[in-house]
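Q: I have 249 residues here and want to know how they pack in 3D. Can you give me a structure?
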Amino acid sequence: MENQKQDLEWFESWFNTIYYHILYQNRNEKEAELFVENLVSKLDIKPKNNVLDLACGKGRHSVILNKLGLNVTGVDLSSNSISKAKKSENETLKFFVHDMREVIPNMHFDFIFNLFTSFGYFDHHEDNLKVLKSIHEMLSPGGKLIIDFFNLQRVISEMKPQELKSIEGIDFHISKKFDGKHIYKTIEFEAEGKNHSYTEKVQGLSEADFKKLLIQADFELVDVFGDFYLNPFDAELSDRIILVASKKA
């Protein structure tokens, strides 16, 4: 069976495969567009503001932000995703490979977006803090960070231990579990005559966890929303937890 390479972190190997993009190809683009438009309106983001889409994947949110008149930089650790994103580049939309734990030299942003559960991939609390401190350093004075993450309590209550998804002739056998610290999602399938197995591992972060991390990284929490329509967050009912934090001087 072909597994994740041991010398790579899970997201480095899995996100770079064609099978990752096959499994997640049916993401709701209209929903993503509505979400971004709601954020830009709610946060009073102005045309020509400089924004960073941190862990941008193939750049779908970056493209929407750019169409709204913003100067956008999208970065992701997956070279495969960035190569696809680069097809959308223009004078005010650029993409490149970057580790979110590191500061991008000589670049500052008015807003930094971290969307669609692109946080908590690491094993250690220190890495989460390193991400947030790097973001803090890259934000201009008064700049804002937006984190969009799953609502842990809702995910645990509705978790399906086993699931089968058949896409483009591939049967993806998916199993999920929560061990008290991480949510594990194991994806097994056969393709091109080989058996494949990948495991996504994302930290189970609650509202309290995020608030603690933001304080440690010198952010001030401004708003907490519970869905893409920016309704108030409810720990039992909300699909998402969307945090808006402002950089402290």
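Q: Anything worth noting?
A: The chain has a mean pLDDT of 93. Residues 23-150+206-247 form a domain with the Rossmann fold fold (CATH 3.40.50.150).
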